[in-house]
Structure formats: C-alpha cells, structure tokens
Specification:
With 516 residues, the chain is α/β, with parallel strands linked by helices. The protein is 41% helix and 12% strand. It contains 19 helices and ten strands. The relative contact order is 0.13.
C-alpha cells in the first residue's frame, strides 16, 4: 500500500496552510473587484466572493501537457467523518481561459472508469475544449483518489489476476465459473489484507465530496461540468447532493442510476450494449471498401457475427500463440478485444486485423496493448474498489452460476461475463453509506448526451437516468454508435448541442434526436 501522502502535515499541507491564510488576508480586496478585474489577478480568476477552501499552489506539470497547463495538489480527508485527520492528496490540473473578458466560470472535466485519470483526459481533450469553449471557462480536472497522480493503494495482486481478461470475469469455455469464483475470493482477500484505509475510501460518495472540496479550493460558488461514462454517476450524485453549486451540467454516456445495482447493473448492461453496437462493426467489416486493406471479413453484414462466434469457440478449444510471449489468444481474449473495440469506429481496423490473424494458421496475432500485459496493481485496485465499496453485491455463487448459464444463451457475444461473479461478491468491507438515489429535485440545468448504440452504457440504461432526473434534464440522442460522444465518438449535431449549452446556456426545450 502506498502511504507516503497520508501524513497529517506534509510539507505540501504546511504550504497550503500558509497560502490559505494569505488568501484570507486578500479576500476582501478581491471581493471589491469586478469579475473582469479579478481575472487579471494571478490565482484569483476563479475565486468568487464568499467561496472558501484550501488554497491550490499552481505550478508546472511534471509530464507532457498543454500550453499554459498548470498542476497542483489538493489535500482531502482520508475520512470525511474526521476532516482534520489523515489527509490524501489529489492531483489537479487547469488550463486557464485565455480570454478573461469572456470567462464565465470553471468547467470541471469528470473522468470515467472507475480508475480513469482526469488529468490525462484534460491533456487529451483540452485543445478541442479550448476551441469549443472560446475562453468561456477555466478547464479543470483531477485524478480521483487511487488514480493517476493522486494518493494510491494496491492489493498486492499476482500478475495473472491483473490481466484485463481475468479482472473481467469471463466464464470458462463450457460456462463454468469455478475459476472465476476462486479468483474473485483471492482478489477480495488480497485487497482486504493490503489495501488499508486508502482503498476503503475509494467510493463515489467520497469522489463527490472531493469534487466539492475542489470547488471550494477553486473559489467557485458554482461549477459547470462535463462528465462522461462512469463519471456521469458521480456527476449526477453531485448534482443531487449539491444542486446549489451546479451551473451547466453535461452528462455524456449515462448508466442506469438504480441505487441497489450500482456497478452490478452497469456490468450486466454490457450484454445489451454489445448486441446494440456489434451490427455497426459487422456493416463496416462487410463493406467492399475493406478489400483494399484486406480487412473485409464477410460479404454480408449478417455473416460477421456467426464468423466471430465460431472463431471464439475455436480459440476456446485451441488457443493460438500470439506475438506477446506467454499470452496466447484465447476465445475470451478475443471477446474482450471485441468489447473494447466497440467503443469507437477508429478501433474497428485493429479488431478486424486481429480476426484475420487469428484465422491465419501461420500468423502470430498482435494483441491490443491493453490485453498484452497485466495492469499495474494500483490501477487494478482502483478499478475494483470503487464499485465494491459503493454497494453490497449478492454473495450466492449458485445464483451467479444460474445467471451466467441464462445470459450465455441470450447474449452469446458476451458469453456470460456481464452477470458473472466478481470480487465484490466477497468484499470484506461493508459500504460506508447507502448509494444516493437520483431524483428530479433541483434546478433544471442538466443536458444529457447519448449515442443510440453505446456498448458500455447502453441507451436502455441511459433512459433510466433520464427518467430519474425528470424535469432537471434534457436528453439529446444521437443516431450513432460508440462510447463517450462529445468531441469523440459522437456527431457534429451532438457536439453543437453541448457546446451551445455550455457557452450560451441554450438547451433544447424538450428531448431531441440528432440524425447527423
């Protein structure tokens, strides 16, 4: 377990204390300035009168970044029930508006995952966001506890248990889950033994509290936000818990917010998502244009699915040596490659190439990087801990076995994975609190963006989020496939809707559908 950031008064914390006192001394002066004048004061552009919080000491970022990007560390309580107790640090990053007269606030980029880095996402999306926002916001993101440059904890997992294809509980070729059950117990026990208080603190509830701590540190009375994938859930919970601090709120690629099935319901929905999305890949792979690069898999789209299922079954029986030593291409690894590739059209060529190599007796398939080796221990821990800490999962192995048998028949593309046993079934720490129920209570300031054929957060689940939010939200549905729509796997129509809402406040009067 990493503990180097949990000391009560680190050097950074002492610096933050000094800066906080200094900020208090100048708060009255800043409050007397106009917003435009405040924007000219270094470090004060985001500090609104009446807002308070731990100060952020901005400085150069350690890694590659965007022009003008700054980084800081935000101290947060390990346990909010003991706010003055041990502290963790969150890595925070910012790109300030280059047009102070146009600036209207801060746009928080809430990353997905669980386990995604917001700092890395800001680097990836920052240029596009700067172009779209035209100076309307400082762009800010953070690494949730357990991820990126923030305080981490590990479970001490063996490399074999940190492969994505084993962290995801793919059943045996015959549908058996005995090995999945043993691995899930082993991971849960290792996390209880090695993760400590830091691992136990990784939860949606604490991420929401951390976001509000960040808001206060930025000096903002309200935040605007763009949340994507898993980030939609803490984004929605924040809007539920702190409606008075939300300005313009975008939820991109939403899951079902049912509080009794947090995490488990999202996983189960992958079966529907894959079925919704696979026809897009099939149409692409049967297009005659693929002949030019040798990636056409079938003459008709309807032939691609049986081809894939037959190839996966063949690899179940006889795994094929890959270009990665010690990692053969199995049926489950191919299935996981499909799930990953369905996230965006740009990944289709790599998937088709993998299928072609798997069909060639003389080829050694080149595995996608994410499947070629184990995840870092701390990354695997963060992916696992957040969903397990949020809500208690059922523990009956017999019930999982029955669910897998049925799901394999209904959804052969995903072969029972979405309803299989996970470490959460044996998690040794009870949730610290019940999950938040999302409701329609609060200001009507939320715009949802959703691809109709999203493999990871399928449309059927997003409609349940839409129903829960009621009059608070408007939904823009895109006739498109892929995951995380805005400035990525969406459409020009969807991008215009989000950009217009964030920059002008204009939002459709009712739910809308984008065909282009």
């Amino acid at each position: 377990m990493t503990t180097h950031r949990t000391t009560r008064l680190t050097a950074h914390a002492r610096r933050a204390l000094v800066l906080t006192l200094s900020a208090a001394a100048v708060a009255g002066t800043l409050a007397a300035l106009s917003p435009a004048a405040r924007a000219q004061v270094p470090g004060a552009a985001a500090r609104a009168p009446g807002a308070s919080g731990p100060a952020l000491a901005w400085g150069p970022c350690a890694g590659p970044g965007l022009p003008g990007q700054e980084c800081a560390e935000l101290p947060v309580p390990l346990d909010y029930r003991d706010p003055d107790g041990p502290q963790l640090t969150l890595a925070v990053s910012r790109v300030r508006s280059d047009r102070p007269a146009a600036r209207r606030g801060t746009l928080l980029v809430i990353p997905g995952g669980p386990g995604g880095s917001g700092v890395a996402r800001l680097v990836a999306k920052g240029k596009a966001l700067e172009r779209e926002m035209a100076g309307a916001y400082d762009l800010v993101s953070f690494d949730p506890r357990g991820t990126g440059g923030s305080t981490k904890a590990g479970c001490g997992l063996d490399a074999g248990d940190r492969q994505l294809v084993t962290l995801r509980s793919w059943p045996d070729p015959d549908g058996g889950i005995t090995e999945n059950t043993a691995r899930s117990r082993r991971i849960a026990e290792a996390c209880a033994r090695h993760g400590g208080a830091v691992l136990r603190s990784m939860s949606t509830a604490n991420e929401v509290r951390d976001i509000d701590r960040l808001r206060r540190a930025l000096g903002e009375e309200k935040l605007s936000a763009w949340a994507a994938s898993y980030g939609v859930y803490p984004g929605a919970v924040y809007a539920q818990k702190y409606p008075q601090h939300t300005d313009r709120w975008v939820l991109d690629s939403s899951g079902d917010p049912d509080p009794s099935r947090v995490g488990r319901g999202w996983l189960a929905n992958l079966a529907v998502g894959a079925d919704d999305r696979f026809p897009d890949f099939a149409a692409w792979a049967a297009d005659p244009a693929r002949e030019d690069d040798g990636l056409r898999l079938a003459e008709r789209p309807r032939d691609v699915r049986p081809l894939f299922l037959a190839l996966a079954a063949k690899l179940d029986r006889a795994p094929k040596e890959s270009a990665t030593k010690g990692v053969p291409l199995t049926g489950n690894l191919l299935r996981q490659a499909v799930l990953s590739a369905l996230g965006g059209d740009s990944r289709f060529p790599q998937l088709a190439r993998l299928v072609r190599q798997a069909q060639d007796p003389a080829a050694r398939p080149v595995l996608p990087e994410a499947l070629a080796g184990p995840l870092p221990d701390e990354e695997a821990a963060a992916m696992t801990a957040t969903v397990c800490n949020d809500v208690r999962w059922p523990a009956s192995v017999a019930a999982y076995r029955r669910a897998v048998a049925l799901d394999r028949v209904r959804h052969p593309l995903t072969a029972g994975l979405p309803v299989n046993v996970t470490p959460c079934a044996f998690w040794q720490n009870a949730p610290a609190q019940k999950p938040t129920r999302i409701t329609a209570e609060g200001p009507s300031n939320i715009l949802m963006l959703q691809n109709r054929r999203d493999p990871a957060t399928p449309y059927s689940g997003a409609l349940k989020m839409r129903q829960a939010l009621g009059g608070r939200a408007r939904l823009v549905t895109l006739d498109h496939g892929g995951h995380e729509a805005y400035l990525g796997n969406g459409t020009a129509c969807g991008d215009r809707a989000v950009t217009g809402f964030l920059t002008t406040g204009r939002r459709p009067e009712r739910d809308a559908y984008c065909a282009d």
